[in-house]
Amino acid sequence: MARWLVRPMSSHDAHLTRDEVVDRLVDVLKSHPKVDPSKVNPEAHFEKDLGLDSLDTVEVVMAIEEEFKLEIPDQEANKIDSLPLAVEYVANHPMAA
Amino acid sequence: MATTAGYLARRAAQKERVRLLYRSALKDTLNWAVHRHLFYQDASDLRDKFETNRHVEDPDVIDRLIDDAEAQYRNFQHPDPYIVPWAPGGSKFTRNPPPPQGIEIIYNYGKEN
Question: pTM for this structure?
């Protein structure tokens, strides 16, 4: 919770570290109602490991968009199939908050 | 029904259309129902609508269902959707463009000699 208190004021200096991205993504996945929290690890594949549907994957991607205040284009969103891919995308996005 | 390559390709294309439609419809639902408890209710209703047609096998029926659903989505779009500020259409898009190349600040203007 303390990360909200030490948030830098400028929007261009606040770069996310990869660990923070992974932690936040794991939290997002654990709070999804259709996901079993004990199966979530940083290498999880949405459909194979977590047993999610393609529509569930769409919901998860939208939750990721809301968490990091991103706008993911549809082409990229179709490719985000697993947690490592999501970490790659968010960590390399210049505007991830 | 013989699962030929054409049939599978058609089903895969339909699956992509359904994904795109679900994504757009979910974002639209969030535009309309801003309060979270309303959004969760509407989102589960939307998901149930998709789930009722999950086991349809005939590609023509699926095509017609997708077309109807897309027409419904087009009718229901929000007139003022939420766009992330830095994305195209948002309020911060190109607000502070980077300055052109080659421009630099001259620190001792007028006092060069």
Answer: 0.82
User: Which residues 50-109 of B have a C-beta within 8 angstroms of A?
Assistant: 50, 83-84, 86-87, 90
DSSP E strands: which ranges in chain A? none
The highest-level CATH class for domain A12-92 is mainly alpha
| B48 and A CB contact within 8 Å | no
The tens place of each residue's pLDDT in chain A, 97 residues long, gives 555 665 555 555 567 889 999 999 999 999 998 888 888 888 889 988 888 989 999 999 999 999 999 999 999 999 999 999 999 999 998 888 8
DSSP letter for each residue of B55-87: T---HHHHHHHHHHHHHHHHHT--SS----TTS
Cβ–Cβ below 8 Å for A95 and B86: yes
ipTM (interface pTM): 0.80
Residue position matching structure tokens 């948030």: A7
All structural domains of chain A with their residue ranges: 12-92
